[in-house]
Amino acid sequence: MTFLSILIALLIEQVRPLRADNPVYNAVHALAMRMEGWFNAGQASHGRLAWLATMLLLVVPTMLIYWLCVRLSPFAALAWNILIVYLTLGFRHYSHYFTSIQLALNNGDEAGARSLLAQWTGMDTVDLDVSNISRIAVENALITTHRNVFGVFFWFLMPLGPAGAILYRVSEHLAKAWNEPEHLRNEDFGRFAARAFHAIDWLPARLTAIAFAVVGNFEDAIYAWRNFASRWQDEAVGIILSAGGGAMGLRLGTSVQKAADVVLVDAYTIEAAGLETEAPPGEEANTRALQSTVGLVWRSLLLWMLLLLLLSIAVWIG
Predict the structure, then answer these.
(1) Are 48 and 193 within 8 A, CB to CB?
(2) Around Cβ 129, how many Cβ atoms within 10 Å?
(3) 18: helix, coil or strand?
(4) Domain that holds residue 110
(5) How many structural domains are present in the chain?
(6) Cα(295)–Cα(267) distance, rounded to whole angstroms?
(7) For residue range 81-128, what is the model confidence (pLDDT) as tens digits?
(8) Would 229 disulfide with which of 39, 233, 238, 244, CB 3.0-4.6 Å?
(9) 29 DSSP 8-state letter
(10) CB atoms near residue 122 (< 10 Å)
(11) Cβ-count burial of 14 within 10 angstroms (0-12 exposed, 13-18 middle, 19+ buried)?
C-alpha cells in the first residue's frame, strides 16, 4: 500500500501539480502565524509550546483519520495515503522555475534567468553571471527536492505513515516561518522549531546524500561530504550540497551565496581563523549543470522507488 500510495501520488502530481501558494499551504502558513501571535512573548519556551500545539492540531487528526480509514476499508486507507502524499510532496512546486531558468540560459537570455531566479529565491540577482545563476539554481533544486520529496518519503515510511509526512513538512515550514521573517530573526521564539526540524531531518538528509552518491560519482561525493560539508552553517544543507556537487563533479557553495536560505561561512572568516580553505573538487557550474541536476534527481527518485518496491515485496512475501 505504501508503494502504491507514493507511486499514484507522484503520477497525479505530474499531471496536476499543486502550486506553492495553494489553499492548503496558505492555511498551514496562516495557522503558523496565528500560533506565533498567540504564543510569542519573547521566550524560547513559548516557541516550544507553539510548536507542540501546532503539531497536535495537524498530526493527531491525520493519524486518527488514517486509523479510521484502516478500519473501514483498505481502499479508504489507500485513498487517504494518496491524498496526504500528494499534499506533502512538492516535486513539481518549483520545477517550473528551474525549467524556465534552464531554457532562458540555453537561449542566451541571462536577464530573464536572473529575474526567474530572483522570484524563486528572493535574493538579489542583478550582478550574477551565468556560472553563479547556474550554481544557485542547482543548489536550490537539490535542497528543495530533498525537503519536498525525499524527506517526505522517509517520514511516510515510518510507523506514523501519513502523519509522519505531515510532521516533516509542517516542521520544515515552522522552522522557516518562525525564524526567517525580519521581525522574528534572531528571536528566541523560533529556536525550538529550528532545532526540532534539524533533528527530524538528520537521518533523511544523510539518506538523500547517500542516494546522490550511489547514482552519481560515488568517490567524489563521499570525499566532498567528508571534507567540505562543515563549511555550511546548516549541517544538513552542507551534507546534501557537498554530496550532490561531488556526485555531479560540480563545485557548489561560495562565501556570498545564499543556498536554500542558509548562508555559507564567509571564506575570509575561515582564512582569518587559519582554517583549511581548499576548494571543493569539481568544475564551476554552467548551463550543462542544470541538465546534470535533472538527471541526478530522477536517478535518485528511481533508486528510492526501487528500494521501496523491494521492501514492499519483502513485507508482502513475509
Answers:
(1) no
(2) 10
(3) coil
(4) 2-317
(5) 1
(6) 31
(7) 999 999 998 877 778 889 999 999 999 899 999 999 998 888 888 888
(8) 238
(9) H
(10) 11
(11) exposed
pLDDT of residue 280: 67
- DSSP 3-state assignment of 262? strand
Report d(CA 29, CA 34) in Å as an integer: 9
Query: Letter for the amino acid at 68?
Result: L
Write down the H helix ranges in 73-201.
74-88, 95-106, 110-121, 130-145, 151-157, 162-177, 191-200
In this predicted structure, the answer to whether residue 255 has a pLDDT above a threshold of 70 is no
* Separation between Cα atoms, residue 29 and residue 173, nearest integer Å: 8
How many Å apart are CA 176 and CA 171, to the nearest integer?
9
- Res. 299: pLDDT tops 50: yes
Number of Cβ within 10 Å of residue 88's Cβ equals 26
Residue type, 12: I
Chain centre to alpha carbon of residue 306: 21
Q: What is the 3-state secondary structure (H, E, C) of 206-247?
A: HHHHHHHHHHCCHHHHHHHHHHHHHHECCHHHHHHHHHHHHH
Matching residue, cell 522555475: 97
Residue matched to cell numbers 530522477: 298
CB 178 within 8 A of CB 209: no
Write down the pTM of the prediction.
0.88
